[in-house]
Structures are given as C-alpha cells and as structure tokens.
C-alpha cells in the first residue's frame, strides 16, 4: 500500500482484503472471530500490530484480541479501558472517514490514561508522512443496520512501508472494520443462539425429569390423585387418576374417566363440592364406590396453569378420611347419647326441644303465663307443697290427670279391670284397645327430614299478629280433645319398682332392665319421634303432631309395652311406669316444659296409690 498511483498494489491489496474478509466468516466462535479480525489486519492490510477492543455490557472496552507481538499480547490482553477514555480518543486528532488518526504531537497527553496501550520509542520522522511509534490510528466498528451502536475499536500500529496509509489504505481499513463488525455481530448472534439452545436443552431435560418425577409421584402416591379438565363443555371431567384413587372407589381408570366428581359425589354434598374453590379449595364430602356405598374423602384442589392460555387442568388430591369421620361420628354420638341404652341423653334432648321453642315476643307476656296457660288447659295445678309435692287439694278445681271419669291409674285412657291369678303379687292391669298408628298431620312448613322448619321472625307486637313471621311456632293443642288441634307432646316416664330391682338383684340386672325398657320405648314410637334417657330410670318421649287423645293413647301403649316381664339371667323381673304428659309451647323454656311434664308424672304416680308392684 505504498501509493495509490500504482494499480497493481491496489489489486493485490484488494485480493488480500477479500481473502481475510472471507476468513472472518469461517470462525466458529466469538473468540475465534475476534482473533481472526486481529490476524487479518496483520496478514492482509500490511500492519505489524493490531488490537481488537470489544465493548462490554457495562460499556467499557476490553482488549479481546491482539496480533503481531506475543509480548504485547500477553501484557495487555484482557485489560479494560473506560468508555469515557475511549470516547475522548475518538474525538481527538484527524478524521479520515470513519477512522481517527492521532499524531504523536497530540497523543502524548494520552500516555497516562487507563486505556491499555503498547508503544516503543523511536526517532522523530525524517519526512512528512513517515509513521512515528507514538502515532495512533483507530477504526471504530459499529453494529450493522445504519445505527451508531459501538461494538468495538480496532487499533493498528507500524504500517510495513513506514508511512502513514494513503487514501486507498485508509479505505481498505475502513471497509475491513465494517466487515469485522458484521462478523462480530454474527458471531454474537451464533453464540447467543448456542447458549439459548443449550439452555433450552437443559430446560427440556429438567422438564422431562420434572414430568417423570410428577408421574411417579402421581402414580405411586399413597392417596388418591386426579387431574380434571377446566373450562369448555367437558369442564370437570376426570382425565387421569392414579391407582390409589381407583382402589379407593373400586373402579378402573377407564371407567372413572367417564365421570366428573359431581357425578360421584353424594347428593347431600353436591353443594359443598360446588362451593369449593378451584385454587387451593378444600372440602370434605362423600364419593360413590362401585358397590353403591359412599366413602368420606378430603378433596384438595390446585390449578395446573398454562402461561399462555391460563388455567387448563385441575389437580385434586383425594384423601381417605373414612376412619376419621367414623371416629368423629362416634365421638359426637357418645357426647349426645346415653352410653348404656344408646338413646339421646339429657343434653341432646334439651337441644332438640330447644330447637322447637322461641321467645315468641308479644304472644304471651311472660314465660310463666305460657306455663300457666298449658297447665290450665291440661290438668294444671294452682299450688303445691314443698319440693314440688302437690297435695290432693291443690288442683284449684281443674281435674288433674288420673282423676277423671273412667280413669284408673294410666296416662289418661279408660279401660276395664282384668283379673289376675291369686297370689301373683301383682295388681291387676287392664286391657287396652289396640293402638292404631297415628298419622302426623300435613304441615306445609315441615322439613322433609321430619323436623319442623324454622322460617325466621317478624312478629308485630302492635297488632298481635305476625304477617311476616316465617317461624312455625310450637303451640299446645286446645283443651277440647275433639277440636282436632295438634302439638308437640312431651311424655315424662318414670319407672315404678326399678329401685327394688337394683337393690335386690344388683346393678347389672338393673342395667339390663333399662336397656330393654329403652328398646321397648323405641319400638313403640314413630320414626320421627325422640326417645331420650333423662337419667337414672327417667325417660322422655317427644312426639310431634299429636292431639290430647293421641298423646294419652301413646302413653297407654308405651306403659303397657313396659309392663310385660323382662328376663335377665334366667329370672323374670317386672317394672311399671308412670307417665306425665306435658306440651311444648313457644314462650316456654326447655326446663319449664320438662318440669311441667315431670309434675304431671308425679301427679299420676300419687293418684295410683292402690297400685303396688314388686320385682318378680
């Protein structure tokens, strides 16, 4: 490149430039490309030293490649120069197109900055275009595409002719820097693609490993697992289940895939299932087995989301809680039922009775008024002796139970005497008319389970009516047995002669008697009625929808069911029973209702002084 007037020099340089540019595109990595750029300057453009400074992500420039001097290469390769120092250099000196030439007369001020550099001492130039060792020539490399994003800077030194490059040499260096920028950009793109491919392969391997781990965790989980579809026409359909869930439900995987959880859930639990949130929702409900039985399970939901389409699948963990539920039900049953007879205990009785009563504001001024009203209508009393003992003159003109016409010691039913064998030791018991099953009257507000429905409140005390009152008040029937009114009867039962059995034969025999009495009472009532053990030898029967006559007939039937002998350990024993009939009514408390029935039971017991029983 001595002079531009020699055409053969231009042609030779152009050939060399073509060769070294071709080599730029054969490099396989970014590091190889940078070294090829430096080597191409020394090999094809006629400079003894070449350095490639590459812009780092933080903006500073690092010496990425060096060619022409091994000592210089070892000294400055990898060293970093500040971006500000480089911008200062690229703004100094003479502008040769895109090149920047800084003569030694100006470059001496750059000797102390932080840009890595290599230079040698030498004599001053003897002629005008002679190259000085401290002259500097830089070729900036900009990203392709017409922008001015700086990729790096090529610095060259010591042209072989000893002279500053002429116009043709400058043009060749500028063209080479442009092609080097393209090669570096392509090498970076290839490196990024390779890193992306490596990262993608690692992610795919991790995904495959994760899927395998999930598959094994799903398939071999000790508790049930299911994947269901979310959205669309098939929302909720089970797509996949594990062996544990198949065993739990007694169904094959192919059979379960025809269902959703809503198809398998118990009808009473469908509301619980629908209220369960998809994201982190929990529910305890019953699922149907193949044999039409149900098993208690705990469902726990989580969503398997797709980053583009949103939630797609519902992952459900199904845990068998049948044993836990059974234990819970047993504990609840033990808390609310008598351990000996299995009947509802006193607390459960009071809870069931309390559920039927309300304050009924405005209907009756005070609770005592309600008690007195029921007492007056059904054999009430006006006064009593100490400890609740009522003398025979304390009935205030109201005929008490057991003293009406035809009454002979039972709960309000008339019957004729039946002779017994002499010396039997038992007082005669009278026959009774066969008890006809009584039907519960139709109640439009009744709950399908047999319990009366509660419908709210809304009594208007100013008018004494409750047009907005949805609660079905419990009211005692009228005093006239023929008026057809019905109510909630409370039959208080106390066993006669039970203490003598306990004292004579022991508590084991007494327990057996109580168990048999409970069984006979349960057999003698309807399915919706309640038979409870209040304690000791006292029982209470709640029977809704009865009139006065129905309640008296029920007491007769239950009393005569208790009377037959009970065989315990080869011995026959017998107990009697006294019944008092009370009536539950809104405005009364539970204790008032039970006390009312209890008092009537003692009235009956006192009225049957001539009836004597003993254990047989």
UniProtKB/TrEMBL annotation:
Boundaries of every GGDEF domain copy: 486-616
UniProt keywords, alphabetically: Coiled coil, Nucleotidyltransferase, Transferase
Domain PAS per the UniProt entry, residue ranges: 210-269
Keyword Nucleotidyltransferase: yes
PROSITE patterns, alphabetized: GGDEF, PAC, PAS
Coiled-coil intervals: 186-213
Nucleotidyltransferase as UniProt keyword: yes
MF terms (GO), sorted A to Z: diguanylate cyclase activity
Boundaries of every PAC domain copy: 281-333
Major enzyme class: transferase
EC number: 2.7.7.65
Pfam entry (one): PAS_9
InterPro entries: Biofilm_reg_signaling (IPR052155), GAF (IPR003018), GAF-like_dom_sf (IPR029016), GGDEF_dom (IPR000160), Nucleotide_cyclase (IPR029787), PAS (IPR000014), PAS-assoc_C (IPR000700), PAS-like_dom_sf (IPR035965)
PANTHER family found in the cross-reference section: BIOFILM ARCHITECTURE MAINTENANCE PROTEIN MBAA, DIGUANYLATE CYCLASE DGCP
Protein name, as recorded: Diguanylate cyclase CdgB
Organism annotation: Streptomyces niveus (Streptomyces spheroides)
